Structures are given as structure tokens and as C-alpha cells.
Amino acid sequence: MAASKRKNIYQRALQLRKSSKLFDTNDKVSADTFKGSVDRFAWIAHELSDCKRVLDIGPGQGVFVSLMYELGHECYAVDIIDQSDQYPGALKEKVQEYKLCNAEFESLPWEDNFFDAVVCSQALEHFTHSHLFAVREMHRVLRPGGILGLDVPNVACLRNRSRLLRGKNITWDYEEFYLHAEPILQNGMSFFPIRHNREFTIDELRILFREAGFADSRCYFLKSRRRREGAERIRNVGSAIRDLVPSYRKSLIGFGRKAASE
């Protein structure tokens, strides 16, 4: 039943993209984000289907908040870098509030128990320092019984294992993103958000939920297949073979619930 509902949301997302309701179809960046993330977005949207007020932390071009808005949710967003002028259709027109905040050390600019759900998708791996303060803040702004959705890269995925066996690093280009990277300086601290600083095992994701105070969590290896069309679909065969072994999948996804009595 759950898989069927996720599939329905996936098909709805495709329809919304086709009708240009999610983003300008001439925008190649948003189009690429959609193709690489629509599986993930459909799963999260399904899990949050009963959550009215949703916060997206690190929304990027706003493709996910645009989808949630079109599905009837009240959307909010917060990011370290302001992209609202570049992507006004999603980040200005479809969110109730779009705020700037460095979630690694700044408190989220909303009161306790404000949101039904919080989502942080493919962002924690870009954090330079501990994830704990930020995820505790996500817990704080959730109402009792609210849901946090996190998805992050799986450090033990097949691609990473293959690269290590071939003597290659799993991270980004060493010279550009590590040797010569210029930090963002805030509060006397250095931050490097334009690279992966830490990928995760599934047990580490469970630990993060627990240490941040969530009453329970469910974590999975995510089938995250890129949306390919036409002749490109032949490449899905490799993804399907990889996904047969759950621990080889590219991403992890988890959902934590705040205790109802808090």
C-alpha cells in the first residue's frame, strides 16, 4: 500500500513538472535536481502526507518545497545562501517564509513546536562541524509527534567501495574543494559547505536521531534512481542491479518522530 501511494506521488510529480508548475522547464539546474531526486522527494512527500506545516532546511533551488506546495502543504524554508532571486517561483511565491540561517551554529528562527514536519535533504554531508546542534534544533521546532526526514549519502555504497578498490578517494576533487577551497567565515568559525565533509553509515544516522532526542526512528537504504527518459533508460539497468543489495545503494533515508508528550 505504501509503495503504491509513493508511486502515485511520483506520477503526480512528473505531471507537475510537465506542466511547468514545479519549476521553469528551461532551468537546467532545477531540471537536473528533479531527475536526480524525484524518487527521494516522492518518498518524503508520502511520509509527510498528513503534515500541514513543513520546513525545508537547505532547499537549494526549491524543487522539493515547490512539490510540497503543489500537494497542498504550507511550506517554509531556510538556507545558508540566499537563492530566492535566482529561483523566485519556488522560494518567493510558494513559501510562507524564506529565511537565512547557518544551521550549524545558529538557532532556527522559529519558536518551539511550530512545525508538523522538518526536512533536511542531502545537506548534512555539507556540514563542516557537528551535526548534533542542528538536528536538536530541528527537534525543538517540531510539534510533539512531529516528523523529521533526513536523507544523506551512504558512505558504504557500491560506488564508494569501487573507488577505494581502485585507489581513488570517495570525496570531491582534492585540489579544487580541499586544498584551495575558500571558507565561509562566520562567528569566528570556518565553514566549507560547497563539498561533502562527512558521509554516513546507516548506524550513524540512527545514532544521530537518538542523540538529538527523537523518540524513535526508521532508517533505510534508499532506492534513489535518476529519472532517465528515452535511450538513456538503458542506464537504469545498472542502477537496478546495484539496488538489489540494499547496502550498495547510493543514499540513506530516515524518519524520526518527536515524542507525543513533549
Helix share bin: 25-40%
Domain tally = 1
- Mean of residue pLDDT? 93
CATH superfamily: Vaccinia Virus protein VP39
Shape: globular
User: Which residue ranges are poorly predicted, with pLDDT under 50 across at least 5 consecutive positions?
Assistant: none
Gyration radius, rounded:
18 Å
Order of helices and strands: HHEHEHEEHEHHEEHEHE
Which CATH class? Alpha Beta
Tally the helices. Answer: 9
The CATH topology turns out to be Rossmann fold
Query: What class would the helix/strand composition place it in?
Result: alpha/beta
Q: Strand order within the widest sheet?
A: 3-2-1-4-5-9-8
Structure description:
- The chain is of the alpha/beta class and about 260 residues long.
- It has a single domain (about 1-255), classed as 3-Layer(aba) Sandwich (Rossmann fold), CATH 3.40.50.150.
- Helix content is about 35%, strand content about 20%.
- The protein has a seven-stranded mixed sheet with strand order 3-2-1-4-5-9-8, with helices on both faces. It has a two-stranded antiparallel ribbon with strand order 6-7.
- The radius of gyration is 18 Å and the shape is globular.
